[in-house]
Amino acid sequence: MDPGYLPFHPAPSTPSFRPPPGAVDAHCHVFGPATRFPYAPARKYTPCDAPKEKLFALRDFLGFERNVIVQATCHGTDNRALVDALRSSAGRARGVAAVGPEISDAELAELNEAGVRGVRFNFVRRLVDFTDPHTLDRIARKVAPLGWHIVVYFEAADLGELTPYLTSLTTKVIVDHMGVPDIAKGAHSPEFGRFMRLLAGHENIWTKVTCPERLSHSDPPYDDVVPFGEMLVSHFPDRVLWGTDWPHPNMKSHMPDDGALVDFIPRIAPTAALQQALLVDNPTRLYWS
Fold first, then answer.
1. Taking 80 as the threshold, does the pLDDT of residue 130 lie above it?
2. Is residue 134 classed exposed, middle or buried when 0-12, 13-18 and 19+ CB atoms within 10 A define those classes?
3. Rounded mean pLDDT of 88-102?
4. Cβ neighbours around 138 below 10 Å, total
5. Range 222-237 average pLDDT
6. 183-210 burial code (b ≥16 CB/10 A, e <16)
7. 196: helix, coil or strand?
């Protein structure tokens, strides 16, 4: 573990909000254990181990029934920890992998059999080296026959540059963390308006209303992030997902209480119908159909 790296919360609180039956934590990770699943040599950070057993225990404690586990950059394109977690989940987890253009059809079929349903493209420069769009196109074409979607992680300042590429994709595209807006600019800023227009103009583009703890400029309960999530959920109720982002890699200011993050849900999805769509119907349609 890197010096100064913040490990996940050791004793999250019991949330007041109870998710509906079938609820999915649609964005979380597994790390290691490094003795069994070593971290990538070219990684930009070394986390604390966060194995499947801890993740599944947290799922049950918070009142969720299923997980979507997303490959993180510390494991590179070595998806063994992800696959091991999926195969240990008794069908209660699906995955989003990271792959290179050299991956074979047989390897993709094995990932698909394990429960992978998407591939992640990371454009955050502090986490990954630049990958040219032609390489990403090769990957997108390879996974298309499997019916996988593409998860993209970028920061709002890069949306203008990325828009032509994102809108060229014909599969479903899932944008991590509301497109990482600058919360200080407000939900009615031109910057966030650009993201709202992207979703409004392209019905294949979804987003995760996740990570208030990363985006906020204030302390918990992250009041300044509520208008962003609420706006996305109300405008696009059938194209939003929610997740904990456990174990919260690379948090600098504090380590969030996962129970408090669950209590954030009704603040952005205030009705039972919106909660059902966000936590059950949308992820089920995307990952278990």
1. no
2. exposed
3. 97
4. 13
5. 98
6. beeebeeebbeebbebbeeeebbbbbbb
7. helix
- Please report, as a single letter, which amino acid is at residue 244: T
**Residues 6+ away with beta carbon under 8 Å from 144:** 170, 171
The two tokens of residue 35 are 């003795």
Q: How far apart are the first and last CA of the chain?
A: 38
Alpha-carbon Rg for the chain in angstroms? 18
List the catalytic residue out of 25, 176, 245, 258. Answer: 245
What does 108-146 look like in DSSP terms, one character per residue?
HHHHHHHTEEEEEEE--TTTS----HHHHHHHHHHHGGG
The mean pLDDT of 210-230, rounded to a whole number, is 97
Catalytic site residue 245? yes
Q: Is the pLDDT of residue 173 over 90?
A: yes
Tally: H helices and E strands in the chain: 12, 8
Mean local confidence (pLDDT), 222-231: 98
User: Is residue 113 scored above 80 in pLDDT?
Assistant: yes
